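notes to self, project folder thing:

trying the whole complex as one job this time. last attempt i did each chain seperately and stitching them together was a nightmare. two parts in total, labels are on each line so i dont mix them up again. if this works i'll redo the older ones the same way
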Amino acid sequence: MKRAACDLWARCSLVVVVALCLSGNVEAHTQKGEAIGFLTGLRHPISGLDHVLAMISVGLWGAQLGAPAVWVLPVAFPMVMALGGMMGLIGIPLPGTEYGIAASMILLGSAVLFEWKPVLWVAGALVAFFAIFHGHAHGTELPPGQNGLLYSMGFVCATGLLHVVGISIGLVHRWTWGQMFLRLAGVFTASMGVFFFWKALA
Amino acid sequence: MNCVRMKRDCLAMLATMAAVFCLYPLPAAAHLNSTGMGPIYDGLLHFFFSPEDIVPVVALALLAGLRGPEYGRRALFLLPASWFVGCFLGTMFQRAASWPVAAISFLLFGGLVAANAQLSLRTMTVLAGVLGLVHGWMNGAGVRWSFSLVGVYTGLVGGIFLVVALVSAFVIKLRPPWARIAVRVAGSWIVASGLLLLGWAARRG
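result (full assembly):
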């Protein structure tokens, strides 16, 4: 009886913790779509499927390649993406951004599908090249607001965490079924890349 | 069995603490100037609610932690001291820098952490001194002199001391290679935030 009460108390506590974590901020006088803080920045990269799939694929590919690529690629991507974001913010044009993003999905998806293992600098350069397009697209879309710093930090953290998600999923590579699963994920990403490329052309 | 009970108790305690915090709302205070608890706490909270200050301090502490205990000790005492001096100089001269100080600090210190730069102790000393003086100056430049500022600045550098002590000690203790790589990844995130911040600064003109 005592144990049941204890279980109930623990479950209730867990619900309270989850509910408190989910509670939103009270944001007086803010306008929708403004760069108001960390959470809006955190939400931005996960708002587009093309970005999400590409960033997770970077993590998957890194996990397939193993050390040191597993951490070099996720380090290179956010830094170069931020450089692209800065270009977008200050208005430096980059032609074919949407094509670049779609091509990144096709290439990264294919790399995961075929377990392509180039030398480290080639993999790093490739990821960095495509990161420019992702960053530029984000930079031109970034809304005006009074707290660009917190927004940027949220934005970078979300990008990095998507890589971490990719790496975590990629850990299944050690099993045969996991290798097959990753290849299927590569097929899915590449297919979505073709879809987004076609959409950009249309 | 005891372990399970301890976990449950811990969870319950955390939930209770979170509930108490949420049920004890404070008035929304723009610019977080006043805690109502005196100038020392005002200074302390100002630091903890200023990401443009706390992130470079964390980056320096990460760097010191990666290099070892001697670097940690140097940063621990030098950074708060130079910050304190910088605050008074800023208040005295009342001239804020026109260049994006925070973005440059993010890029410099984040980059050094990401690269796991093998700095000499002398270079580390200079970097900590410059960081403290420049950011302290920026903190002090916007404030008019009053005697309570001594308390505000004391609280502020107290916060810096605390952050450097905790972060560098945490990193020094890290032994697994992946954990040290995670620290370097955090450095790269700081660089990326700095680049975007530079973009925001350029956009505002």
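what i see at first glance: Residues 27 and 35 of chain B are 10 Å apart (CA to CA).
need to look closer tmrw
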